[in-house]
Amino acid sequence: TWTTGNVIEEQVEAIRALVGDKRAICGLSGGVDSAVAAALVQKAIGSQLTCVYVDHGLMRKGETEQVEKDFVAATGVQLKVVDAEERFLEALAGVSDPEEKRKIIGREFIRVFEQAQAEIIADEGPAVEFLVQGTLYPDVVESGGGTGTANIKSHHNVGGLPEDLEFKLIEPLRKLFKDEVRMVGQELGLPDEIVQRQPFPGPGLGIRIVGEVTKDRLDLLREADAIAREELTAAGLDREIWQCPVVLLADVRSVGVQGDGRTYGHPIVLRPVSSEDAMTADWSRLPYDVLAKISTRITNEVRDVNRVVLDVTSKPPGTIEWE
Ligand code: XMP
């Protein structure tokens, strides 16, 4: 029978046997999956693991600080933070196609890791041969790696890997669904703020801007997203919804009237969904007063946004993310 204890025991043993006296690195994304994967591998091989957090500039407000402080405090893990914002923004300049964005972000991610690896190898110690990834079962299935299902999107931690990958992969969550990952995280002693976090995609806000990704647009989306999250939390809805992507339609403008006159700004899309495992999802029937509050605050507080719209599409036919 399946228990979190069994899963942990099994994985710890397998990881120890696989890694031997070599070392591993693990990318922390700020999300549940990579945090639990890292904590699991940390339990197996301790200081042979170094975590790397790539700040690709596509994170939400406050997220980098959360990894730097909360996760390290909870696990005592060795953490190296790489500031790669400029590099990612340069690589993404001029790109609007969703799949191209995902591939670029996935590729740059691995390259930054290889650089970090080189730096870690330069320290004394055994070779760094392994890369830990928080790939879940639904990621495997949707990338066509599990059951022969057609490829829907190239998830950046599965299908977007470059061909010249230099690491062997450790994917201890590959057979698990999200709720199981949360149970494993809890069993490993991770705090609720990490374990109960809603999912956030590896490519970050890069795939929540419909159109080209620029620093300016990211800053704008970060503000809108922070407001939506704040109000959803204040309304006590965090557990009720699976996640609520906030999307900037950067290539769309509409006419509005704000303050003293006419504006020609961008719409923000709210995409609250309820789901069991992200394979399917339903749009969340959020209370109108919560929606109203979010809409009013975003249009008042975020420059260049003059309209907030609600996505009322289930998955299928819509995916949860817009790209
Ligand atoms: P979709 O948009 O395919 O999303 O319905 C399903 C779930 O996966 C998340 N997601 C990702 N997670 N890397 C990730 O780690 C990715 O590239 C990625 N793309 C989507 C999405 O937020 C949702 O929870």
UniProtKB/TrEMBL annotation:
It catalyses: XMP + L-glutamine + ATP + H2O = GMP + L-glutamate + AMP + diphosphate + 2 H(+). It comes from the Bacteria. GO terms for molecular function: GMP synthase (glutamine-hydrolyzing) activity. It comes from Streptomyces cynarae. The chain holds residues 204 to 526 of 526 of the full protein. The keyword Nucleotide-binding applies. Catalyzes the synthesis of GMP from XMP. This is GMP synthase [glutamine-hydrolyzing]. Pathway: Purine metabolism; GMP biosynthesis; GMP from XMP (L-Gln route): step 1/1. Its EC number is 6.3.5.2. ATP binds at residues 29-35. Residues 2-197 form the GMPS ATP-PPase domain. Keywords: ATP-binding, Glutamine amidotransferase, GMP biosynthesis, Ligase, Nucleotide-binding, Purine biosynthesis. Homodimer.
